Amino acid sequence: MPRSSLSRLSKIGCFVASGAICVALMGANRGAITKPTLNPDAPVVELFEGIDKDQFEARLVAQNAHDGKIFITNKTDKALTVAVPKGLVGVQILAQAPNNQFNQIGMGNGMGIGMNNGMQGQNGAAQSVGGNAGIMGQNGQQNGAQNGNNGFNQGNNQFPGGFMFSIPPEKTVQLAFNSVCLNYGRREPHAGMKYKLAKAESVTTDPVLLQLLEDYSPRTARDAQQAAAWHLANGLTWEQIAQLMDEKIPGNPTPYFSAQQIQAAKTLVEKSEKSAADRPQKVEKKIETARSVVAK
Question: Model pTM?
Answer without folding.
Answer: 0.75
